[in-house]
Write a structure and sequence with these properties.
This protein has 2 domains: about 1-35 and about 80-120 and about 185-265, Rossmann fold; about 35-75 and about 125-175, SIR2/SIRT2 'Small Domain', CATH 3.30.1600. It has about 270 residues and is of the alpha/beta class. The mean pLDDT is about 95. It is elongated and about 60 Å long. A 6-stranded parallel sheet has the order 3-2-1-7-8-9, sandwiched between helices. Helices cover about 35% and strands about 20% of the residues. Helix 1 (about 5-15) crosses helix 10 (about 250-260). The chain has helices at about 5-15, 45, 55-60, 60-75, 85-95, 110, 150-155, 185-195, 215-220, 250-260, and strands at about 20-25, 95-100, 115-120, 120-130, 145, 170-175, 200-205, 225-230, 240-245. It binds adenosine-5-diphosphoribose (APR). Adenosine-5-diphosphoribose binds near residues 36 and 121.
């Protein structure tokens, strides 16, 4: 159903639920100044994702240097949670949401105060040892893990491609690159969260990348109401109980605040 009164219809659905699971993509963070991937000007319209696969990262110092430069560019903006992140945290604090499954690596849901966040694609706030020659797609490190600041300090100190201080292996952001397997337990945690939901609220995702996009689709096929709040159409719109075309930061906060105040929303 295409939405005529975006905020009101979203609030009406949220108001009937007490176990909302949010499923977010890069679009919820664009209003924090972080570009998404597939919109005009998005990351994959400026960089070729085939250049940043896990095996290329392992095999090429040049790719690692470019990947660190991308990370620096990303964190130089010092992104902060926006009104949409904060609205989801309020919904959880009020006991109406059971948490967030996110494809994002920016940590902004946690920074906004969300307590239960399943990070399907890891986090760029930390780095990890992936070993000297990990098998295809699977990090094989010694267990070393540090904040991304640790890596930037070494890069600023002239070590362009920081090595693991414990075993000398390669160091990579604790994210999942194309061609890399999800971290053990990440998919299970996300599946568990959505399995307990009485409504799945997909926000700011093109819902094109699997296995992530399969999670809201499976919930909808089980009969769980799916709401999609997105700037543009997605392949899962046909499964949605409600499609809200609009900006997350403009639509979500008034809907959540109306629900929490117990008042009708126009
Ligand atoms: N409000 C609502 N929707 C928005 C907003 C906004 N403020 N800004 C952008 N969007 C929408 C865009 O129209 C787009 O459909 O969010 C969607 C973002 O889609 P993608 O850029 O494909 O990002 P995402 O779905 O998170 O990508 C999934 O792909 O490259 C991999 O690992 C990467 O996690 C990422 C995955």
């Amino acid at each position: 159903m295409r939405d005529r009164r975006p905020v009101g219809d979203l609030a009406a659905l949220l108001g009937r639920c007490s176990a909302v699971a949010a499923f977010t993509g890069a679009g919820i963070s664009t209003e924090s100044g972080i570009p998404d991937f597939r919109s005009p000007g998005g990351v994959w319209t400026r960089y070729d994702p085939r250049d940043f696969t896990f095996s290329k990262y392992v095999g090429s110092r040049d790719v690692r240097l470019r990947a660190w430069a991308m990370r620096r560019e990303f964190w130089a903006t010092e992104p902060r949670p926006n009104a949409a992140h904060l609205a989801l945290a309020r919904l959880e604090a009020a006991g109406r949401s059971i948490g967030v499954v996110t494809q994002n690596i920016d940590g902004l849901h946690q920074a906004a105060g969300s307590a239960t966040v399943a990070e399907l694609h890891g986090t760029s706030r930390e780095v990890m040892c992936i070993g000297a020659a990990p098998r295809v797609g699977t990090p094989d490190g010694c267990g070393f893990r540090a904040s991304t600041r640790w890596a930037f300090d070494r890069i600023d100190g002239g070590e362009g491609d920081p090595a693991c201080p414990s075993c000398g292996g390669l160091v990579k952001s604790a994210t999942v690159s194309f061609g890399q397997n999800l971290f053990p337990g990440a998919l299970e945690a996300a599946v568990d969260l959505l399995a307990r939901a009485d409504l799945v609220l997909a926000i700011g995702s093109s819902l094109q990348v699997h296995p992530a996009a399969g999670l809201p689709a499976a919930a909808a096929r089980r009969g769980v109401p799916l709401v999609i709040l997105n700037d543009e159409p997605t392949p899962l719109d046909v499964l949605a109980t409600l499609v809200v075309r609009g900006r997350a930061g403009a639509v979500l906060p008034p809907a959540v605040d109306g629900v929490l105040a117990g008042r009708p929303v126009a």
